[in-house]
Amino acid sequence: MSTPPNDPSDPQPTSKSRQNRSRAIVAGAIALILVVIFGYMLLVGGLVD
């Protein structure tokens, strides 16, 4: 799947959707990491108590 060079006169909806999808994936990954860290801290705090 080769991507054609960016042409300002011809906007490509595929590149925009791909950008939105990658942004959603990054946001989801960050949220997942935060949830894991928060849960781990709660678990460790509960074990220490």
UniProtKB/TrEMBL annotation:
UniProt organism field: Modestobacter roseus
Species lineage: Bacteria, Bacillati, Actinomycetota, Actinomycetes, Geodermatophilales
Span list, region Disordered: 1-21
Biased composition annotated in UniProt, kind: Pro residues: 1-11
Transmembrane segments: 24-48
Protein name, per record: Uncharacterized protein
Swiss-Prot/TrEMBL keywords: Membrane, Transmembrane, Transmembrane helix
